[in-house]
């Protein structure tokens, strides 16, 4: 029976498909995830299966709501029971898992110490050995101590291996479980029959050290799970809907148009408009920018940000599902699902690898047995344990999960997982001007009336024409109150629409009237409002972001080739380019010409990063090697770019450029370490130079090295 | 040395008691927040 909350959490996306994120606590290793992927990929109607090993979650995209039942059944049958990935349910299984790990490690540790003590009497007894009766006593004592270790502590590996074998799949638990079970059963047999050697100490040590390795892995995953959970927990449970008398209602019942009253220090529960009061908000959760942003009447406020100074009143303007915070959560989810091409290859290798290891282990057993070595079995088992490719499968996912989180802390949200990979290869950066290098806070600095309409009238018409436009230019005209119909937006040119029966155009003169009309002068950017005849000129001015100069210089110092691509027709673009020291400045570009400009750069063998913010950059974003959208307002810009810079602070770009190189370095060292470890350890184990306890310790340490190395990416 | 025949079984009983005590403490949230005790001496309230 499928739990109701699973069905309820199926969401429909913009193209009409259904999606859900499931938390599957029993995902243990790369082999588990490839098993799930293989089983679900074949189901008709499922478009996409993404499994995140680090977070033990499965993201699904499917065509029909009913398919979720099938998915649930398949996962359940494979023994991967899914849980809905929200924090309320999430915290508990993690806590339980944590407890079970501690108990298992404790039992294995106590057992190991005790069994070692019994075994040592045999090891240090000298050439004659100990008296037979004592030997039997210690064997039986060791057996009794090993039983709980084998049955309880090692169950993590045994159950995992059982699941793999049931599904005819060779995961990482298989060789471990095989090593532990074989040594236990052989020792048991030898104890009962009172012959040969016993390996109880190996059983306990394998289990103890391997469990510690698993636990460290679990803790690191847990930590990032929590940082994601933080976003979920940002919103309050109850909101104040009336001040006098004070009344609250659950946040779930909040609808568009409701009014919410907030006091200083409270978290804003909704995306909305400030309708009363003046205060500032801390939007650091979104932008990484610690400085509060001043909010006055009419300003947009975001769910999850903090109201800092005064009492304010906010009107809800969006449905709960459309809050920006959800997008961020979604983007964050998606980016952590991403697997770089290399990682996919590694998972594939890991699958075959286990088979190779089993053969190698068998071969060494046989070889040493015929050589007459009494430790033939222990050598074979050591090969099994030492070669576990855990470090290799962990190398990329862990590094990427940490990197994604660090970037988010700096205000950069990844949309496309390949972003970090691509960014590390960039050698040329193309900037858009308005809203990217400049503040995008455009003001009208001069108006020239051409027709017989009054100043107020032309501004009102212009403002009404721009009322649906998200471009920064639109805000310069303020709020218009005339009804608008037949609105059309021509990116890079202007807008047109019908007001009171007259068709108006507002934009560059070539667009709104004709080519022959020259702007009054060349200072600043002029736009023309026209109907059948020209009506008014507006001069628009924008100021450069204060960090732009420094940032551009830093990027130049890092050796990147810079260009400025702007649709602006005036000499303003040229001026800004000169001021910032960008030599390759192209002005007066249509969106198509921007695309050509990027292609031209690429034809010179440059990998181009496009930094833009508007609809007119979408095309160029598409052809560029990778792109960052700055504070995108329009959803299509948001979805066209590979990453989003939420705070709009250009400094983060410098950080990202440097950071991508660091990620690449750490990734390379992770993989080099993991591959190097296996290449050295396996032959040594086969040659009999590695003792069983070294194998267990080495295997766990190699995973830990990868985890801790990845943590180096966790810096601000 | 015959006394080990007595001592080893006793040690096993003690070990099993230890294991039981350890698992009990884990199950009863004794390992939930290991920093709590270290931080407690810094807090003003006497609890």
Outline type of chain A: elongated
Q: What is the percent of helical residues of chain B?
A: 55-70%
The total beta strand count of chain A reads 27
CATH class type of the largest domain in chain A: Alpha Beta
CATH topology of the largest domain in chain A: Rossmann fold
Strand-pairing-aware structural class of chain B: mainly alpha
The largest β sheet of chain B comes out as: none
Number of domains of chain A: 6
Give helix and strand order of chain B, one letter per element, not per position.
Answer: HH
Strand content of chain A: 15-25%
The proportion of strand residues of chain B reads: under 5%
Helical region count of chain A? 24
User: How many separate domains of chain B?
Assistant: 1
Distance between the termini of chain A: 46 Å
Poorly predicted parts of chain B: none
Low-confidence stretches of chain A: 86-90
